[in-house]
């Protein structure tokens, strides 16, 4: 003898024969040694739990049954539990159609089986339509909490896929009662599928009937250790029932003149997702059965929506009075087994036809889609589109009177012992909260807030007098990648280059895992930020007046676009990333080729009525000062800008008064502001005087700003800021009102204020901060 795991996952002994028996070969191909070792380990663990239970209290099991169909599956388990009072206490709750006279008052068969019914719950709202089903679920949900509070079961056993069962599972789950679900993982073809799978998600333990159902449960991320492949409990009765006396049962229900294999059992239910079609199909079925002219036992349909209309069809066809028909509301399961086992054919759409009847090889005609996903034996002939009487009649001629091999797809007759062992192995000390076994996947951090903040980015564009720069800027102000090109002299070349650089940067952003939220553009001149139009540019950028920047970029990149003046962008950069962060009022002054700035007042950027606010470089500090590019005289820009310093440096150089010992200017290099600064550092008194005058002019401008805006901070930005800071502070001490002399003046620590400011327009707005 050799030991193997049988088809149901339990140990069986097989004869050793040369080459092995066919069954042994089959089992060897299913179960490998690793799995067998794992099984024995799990069995050992469960045995330890069972040994502990022997010293503990009994397991209180509540079995809730809703109708005749589920009782046929639950009754064998209930008998098994009742036979082991040393392990279990059984509470029986009866509800649903069991308690309705029109459906046979089937609770009586529970009493006849000598079970004490602890609770009867009238939960059915009559109407037999969709609304009545919903109301019935609601009524059950209202009544069940009191019952469960009183019974306090350790575990509730729920069967199948009926709407009543959904109410049971929902109540138990919400009341922290463990649920054992029978027949989960199966597939049919109606709303029952959804209900069955919903109960699976609520249930803590699962008893399934087929290998496919087990795999479905695993695919649904249920814990494999809590799934028992046991087979269908009803098969424990079925496989030992056929040899019993059956003739008296056939005569009692169909008449004395009826012989085995010469009658039909019909059981058809409404399809709740297509009631009209299922009623029409039932009418065609009855017409075909009348024409077939064989004695037929017709069972009334279940209580689903549409059943009332099906009963009307039966009465319209005169089924209850037709000599070939016997119409009944209920047949006890033991007798029903004998009737289908010796029938010439079973027809309808009941799960019994595709499940239990296969155990006897009785021919079955399965009509419509209600059981479309069920595993079936070869005894089942499917008529998916039962839309004509003739099609159903042909199926009857093909199937009636045949005998097929017996099928054990749904069980081998040993389900109940396995279920009882499984119940004994449940550890009530385990956490109640169930865990789902999701398949391993690559860590997904895309919805992590830190990751989102890291990857949210903007395309920033800085249009300077010399260079055109595009950068990918992160939410934290990091420049992920930067692109620089010379700024073309014509509009066409410039706009084409901007588009080209932005498209390349956007494509690169995808590779860098940066989520581009939009495009921000910083440019010199007067800008209408509402329309994204450059109204008037500086003299440094040619052909750049009345230019719509928003439309071409937005149309090309399919992204929102913001445009603003470079001084305003510098202020925005300080507000988001720099020393102005969190301040209500501050002013930024840019000291570069020109002089610009931006004003933040009450946390918001000031644009002015004609978008000309913060033209700080054109504050006049001397009526007799040098000419300014704006056409006026004595502006800060005429003294302190890079262009002004370059002008003064050229004058000194032309007069041979710029260079001092240690300095030289190559012939091919233009004299600029940096040469003046270098000369001043090396002791050139005239250069020092020019820088001091420039710093004083800037300082006077700052004093005017302090007196006008009264900010809490002034930030000097740009390449010249560090050379002016001390002079500016001296002027404030000498010229400003005492009430503003304590205002701090600092040098910006931002390396790329124009790019960061352009990016902040995008990042602030798209993350719900309006700038």
UniProtKB/TrEMBL annotation:
Zn(2+) binds at residues 618, 628, 630, 635. Pathway: Amino-sugar metabolism; N-acetylneuraminate biosynthesis. The keyword NAD does not apply. GO terms for cellular component: cytosol. Residues 87-424 form the UDP-N-acetylglucosamine 2-epimerase domain. GO terms for biological process: UDP-N-acetylglucosamine metabolic process. In the C-terminal section; belongs to the ROK (NagC/XylR) family. This is Bifunctional UDP-N-acetylglucosamine 2-epimerase/N-acetylmannosamine kinase. It comes from Muntiacus muntjak (Barking deer). The lineage of its organism: Eukaryota, Metazoa, Chordata, Craniata, Vertebrata.
């Amino acid at each position: 003898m050799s030991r193997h795991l049988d088809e149901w996952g339990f140990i069986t002994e097989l004869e050793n024969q040369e080459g092995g028996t066919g069954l042994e070969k089959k089992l060897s191909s299913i179960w490998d040694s690793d799995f067998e070792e794992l099984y024995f380990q799990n069995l050992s663990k469960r045995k330890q739990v069972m040994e502990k239970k022997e010293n503990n209290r009994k397991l209180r099991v509540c079995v809730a049954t809703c109708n005749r169909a589920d009782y046929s599956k639950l009754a064998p388990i209930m008998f098994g539990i009742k036979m082991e009072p040393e392990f279990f206490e059984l509470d029986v709750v009866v509800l649903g159609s069991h308690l309705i006279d029109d459906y046979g008052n089937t609770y009586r068969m529970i009493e006849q089986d000598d079970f004490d019914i602890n609770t009867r719950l009238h939960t059915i709202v009559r109407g037999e339509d969709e609304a009545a089903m919903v109301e019935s679920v609601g009524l059950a949900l209202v009544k069940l909490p009191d019952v469960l509070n009183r019974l306090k079961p350790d575990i509730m056993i729920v069967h199948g896929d009926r709407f009543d069962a959904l109410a049971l599972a929902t109540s138990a789950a919400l009341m922290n009662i463990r649920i054992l679900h029978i027949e989960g993982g199966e597939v049919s073809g109606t709303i029952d599928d959804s209900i069955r799978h919903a109960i699976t998600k609520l249930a803590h333990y699962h008893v399934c009937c087929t290998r496919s159902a087990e795999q479905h449960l695993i695919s649904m991320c249920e814990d494999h250790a809590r799934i028992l492949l046991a087979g269908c409990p009803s098969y424990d009765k079925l496989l030992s029932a056929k040899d019993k006396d059956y003739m008296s049962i056939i005569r009692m229900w169909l008449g004395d003149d009826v012989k085995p294999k010469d009658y039909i059992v019909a059981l058809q239910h409404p399809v709740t997702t297509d009631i009209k079609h299922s009623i029409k199909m039932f009418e065609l079925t009855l017409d075909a059965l009348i024409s077939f002219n064989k004695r037929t036992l017709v069972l009334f349909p279940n209580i689903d929506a549409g059943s009332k209309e099906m009963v009307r069809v039966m009465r319209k066809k005169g089924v209850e009075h037709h000599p070939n028909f016997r119409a009944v509301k209920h047949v006890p399961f033991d007798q029903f087994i004998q009737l289908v086992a010796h029938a010439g054919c079973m027809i309808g759409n009941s799960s019994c036809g595709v499940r239990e009847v296969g155990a006897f090889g009785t021919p079955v005609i399965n009509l419509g889609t209600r059981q479309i996903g069920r595993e079936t034996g070869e005894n089942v002939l499917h008529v998916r589109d039962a839309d004509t009487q003739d099609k159903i009649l042909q199926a009857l001629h093909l199937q009636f009177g045949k005998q097929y091999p017996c099928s054990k797809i749904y069980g081998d007759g040993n389900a109940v012992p396995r279920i009882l062992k499984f119940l004994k192995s449940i550890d009530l000390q385990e956490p109640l909260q169930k865990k789902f076994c999701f398949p391993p996947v690559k860590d997904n951090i895309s919805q992590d807030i830190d990751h989102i903040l890291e990857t949210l980015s903007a395309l920033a564009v800085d249009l300077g007098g010399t260079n055109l720069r595009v950068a990918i800027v992160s939410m934290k102000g990091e420049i992920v990648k930067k692109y620089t090109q010379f700024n073309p002299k014509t509009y066409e070349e410039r706009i084409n280059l901007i588009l080209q650089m932005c498209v390349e940067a956007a494509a690169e952003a995808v590779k860098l895992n940066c989520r581009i939220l939009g495009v921000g553009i910083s440019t010199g001149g007067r800008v209408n930020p509402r329309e994204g139009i450059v109204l008037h540019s500086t003299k440094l950028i040619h052909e750049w007046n009345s230019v719509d920047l928003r439309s071409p970029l937005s149309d090309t990149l399919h992204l929102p676009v913001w445009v603003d003046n470079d001084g305003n962008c510098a202020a925005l950069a300080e507000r988001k990333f720099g020393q102005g962060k969190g301040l209500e009022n501050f002013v930024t002054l840019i000291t570069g080729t020109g002089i610009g700035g931006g004003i933040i007042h009450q946390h918001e950027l000031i644009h002015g009525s004609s978008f000309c606010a913060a033209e700080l470089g054109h504050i006049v500090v001397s009526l007799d000062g040098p000419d300014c590019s704006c056409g006026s005289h004595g502006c800060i820009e005429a003294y302190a800008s890079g262009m002004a310093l370059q002008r003064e440096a050229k004058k000194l150089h032309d007069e041979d008064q710029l260079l001092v010992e240690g300095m030289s200017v190559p012939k091919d290099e233009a004299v600029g502001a940096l040469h003046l600064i270098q000369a001043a550092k090396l002791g050139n008194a005239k250069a020092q005087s020019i820088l001091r005058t420039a710093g004083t002019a800037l300082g006077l401008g700052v004093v005017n700003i302090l007196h006008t805006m009264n900010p809490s901070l002034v930030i000097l930005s740009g390449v010249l800021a560090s050379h002016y800071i001390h002079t500016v502070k001296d002027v404030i001490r000498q010229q400003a009102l005492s009430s503003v002399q304590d205002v701090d003046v600092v040098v910006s620590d931002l390396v790329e204020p124009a790019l960061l400011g352009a990016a902040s327009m995008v990042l602030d707005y798209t993350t719900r901060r309006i700038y």
